[in-house]
């Protein structure tokens, strides 16, 4: 297996050596020391967004989708799902498979949802109990308007579910009107993969009922509240490493500092990519700084698989595209990455383009 130096992906991503080091030992899942680690993570996360004791944290083993499914499992009414990318579409798939009544509001992958239209639909249907949407749609890298959407939900007494998978920890937003924030260990928190996380309003957790057995959010929460432990065997190394990652985020200066570092990464990348002739998919007004979709160069000699392999041979892993309407690839700015890492990537891209015989303009 090739030695990869850096992952420029939306997660799993490049982690700090201290985070990886925490996984290099054994932990007893019901021991007091481990229970303390769980407690620290649960207590730290709401505070990153200035949320107090009226919010509570649930940890669930699994990937981020497990968390989305567990939260949607608490819907016993009708959910309005906004779909402008693969992860909004996945929420629809989950609702279908759980047989939860839903209304799907679809937008093109390059168009942000309009809160005014969302409000009209809530009013029109009357029976909507939940509003679910993705904040940073990783499909494209778009930031959807989380506060405006949450405000619409709150105004109509609708429970708001936000998939903040690829923004939590690195994008500042007002979460006061969000009832459920769902994310995972392996994105902007810079932990390893293996844990879904839900920060929810306590009164929602107290009054709702989950679905399924191992993905029953409320059962997991109640057990954690009572014992400080997981119901079933947790991925102990992942939890311990996540604790280190959360402490690192706080030491870095919290969400604001991480937002600044990732923004610098993004600006550095964008400057060099544009210089090489690459074009972004999204209108810059909607583009977030987490991950960017770049259109394939129109040159007939461009082959993404060759491009990918040659970058990988240089120790740098980028990410394939996911949009259905255009040929794109993606580059993530998140993880234990700094502007110098972005410059190292764009230098490798330049070398690769020369090697592939692509005549892209260079100043
Ligand atoms: C916005 C968003 N939601 C949900 C998911 C699903 O997470 P997972 O692949 O960890 O299940 C992802 C994964 O990239 C994502 O970016």
Comma- or semicolon-separated keywords:
alpha/beta, Aspartate Aminotransferase, domain 1, Aspartate Aminotransferase, domain 2, seven-stranded mixed β-sheet, three-stranded antiparallel β-sheet, 16% strand, binds pyridoxal-5'-phosphate
What's the arrangement of secondary structure elements?
Blueprint: E1 6-7, H1 17-21, H2 32-47, E2 55-61, H3 64-72, E3 79-83, H4 86-97, E4 102-106, H5 115-125, E5 130-134, E6 136-137, E7 142-143, H6 146-155, E8 159-163, E9 180-184, E10 195-201, H7 202-207, H8 217-227, H9 236-252, H10 254-275, E11 291-295, H11 304-313, E12 316-317, E13 319-320, E14 328-332, H12 339-355
Parallel strand pairs: 1-12, 3-4, 3-5, 5-8, 8-9
Antiparallel strand pairs: 2-10, 6-7, 9-10, 11-14, 13-14
Model description:
This protein is an alpha/beta fold and 363 residues long. The protein has two domains: 6-11 and 254-355, Aspartate Aminotransferase, domain 1 (Alpha-Beta Complex); 21-252, Type I PLP-dependent aspartate aminotransferase-like (Major domain) (Aspartate Aminotransferase, domain 2). The protein is 40% helix and 16% strand. The chain contains twelve helices and 14 strands. α10 (254-275) packs parallel to α12 (339-355). The longest helix has 22 residues, at 254-275. Bound molecules: pyridoxal-5'-phosphate. Pyridoxal-5'-phosphate binds at residues 10, 63-65, 87, 134, 138, 163, 165-166, 184.
**Average pLDDT figure:** 96
The CATH superfamily of the largest domain turns out to be Type I PLP-dependent aspartate aminotransferase-like (Major domain)
How much strand content do the residues show?
15-25%
Bound molecules: pyridoxal-5'-phosphate
Kindly state the number of beta strands: 14
Give the spatial strand order of the biggest sheet: 2-10-9-8-5-3-4
Give helix % range.
40-55%
General shape: globular
